[in-house]
Amino acid sequence: MRVSDTDYTLVIVTEDGTQYDISDFAEDLGWEENEKELASHLSFTVGTDNEELTALIKIGCIAAVLTDSVERTRGTIQRARVKVSGSKETRTVTAYDELYPLQTSEAQFLFPAGQSTKSILSQILDEWGVPLGKYAGANVTHEKLVFQNGSLAETILEILDDAEKKGGEKSILRATQGQVEIVTRGGNSVVYELDENDTVSVEHETSITSLITRVKVVGQESDKEGVPPVEAVVNGLTQFGIRQKIYRREKDATVAEARTAAQKIIDEEGKIGRSQSVTAPDAPDLRKGDRVYVSVGEMSGYFYANGVRHDATSGTMTLDLEECDGQQVSEGKQEAKKEYKVGDTVQFHSGTHYVSSYPDAKGYKASAGPARITIKDGSGKAHPWHLVHTDGTSNVYGWVDEGTFS
Description:
Number of helices: 5
CATH class of the largest domain: Mainly Beta
Largest sheet: 13 strands, mixed
Number of domains: 5
Number of strands: 27
Strand content: 35-45%
Shape: globular
Helix content: 10-25%
Radius of gyration: 24 Å
Oligomer: single chain
């Protein structure tokens, strides 16, 4: 893709619904979706000497960016800052999408046990008057959830995180054309490939500042001193010192299930942090949560875009990337089906392991790695294979689906 291939249109929608194309008057146009923020925002600058234009761009009006007549982002104007430099006077405008009220609110909730992820999130969005569109993310059954006087954004992220711990796919919540959608991370059908010819710059950083090396599982009941008992300890990279997190077992969960959840924390937060960013020619339809293929220097493989910043002025985008862990992308090749038997050592591809082979069994995420088949065709047969990991690479220890190993 060449930078000149992209033509950006900036539209203002006034209070009475009238649309104005102000592309010719705007400078420094860009929009971004950041990793630790629910809402995306767009910004641009216009001169203040055009009184008619200034009158159009008011707090509460809608600003939207289109390419190829397709809306890429929109937001309600929340802030306008005037700057005077010499004889030049400019107004910088910032607009946030439909998720901004959730990002800036606090709330308390109690969700009884047995509700699905979709049901819980739908209740939250309904209360805030935010329309829910596409739902293709994790949708599992939760235990009782209580959130007291906390950030609503953190509440939503905790619900999605709890869904992942219970076997759902990692999910992304984002706004699209005036509605909220919840999608599986990396579920985009079009995957962009970036190589050295496309890339403007690459940055790498390695860090252990946020590393968790031990998770201690504690029970529900406390002793006479008010201290809950320790029921399990899961260690990670303790050679870097003890950096501990406490995980309180849910009331209706077994110790084994709590230990699996603790292992999940180690799998996610117990790795040496590696942050990578790439600046490349802009692909306006690329979103936070999408998967890309990068082949630049030492970077070679599939990555998730945890953050995306589009710069219409330069025609470039900057991606904050996380390497895909244990994922492979099909190239359309067919192979003869291999027969497996008890005792075989296989490579588990990552996914969900269940507490039984029955269809209604609880499931939890498991990381990729070598494992041994211990049982074939369980009584329930919905998840017909029982695997046990053979080293610390994977934490799989339970019933898995057909096609999850090779």
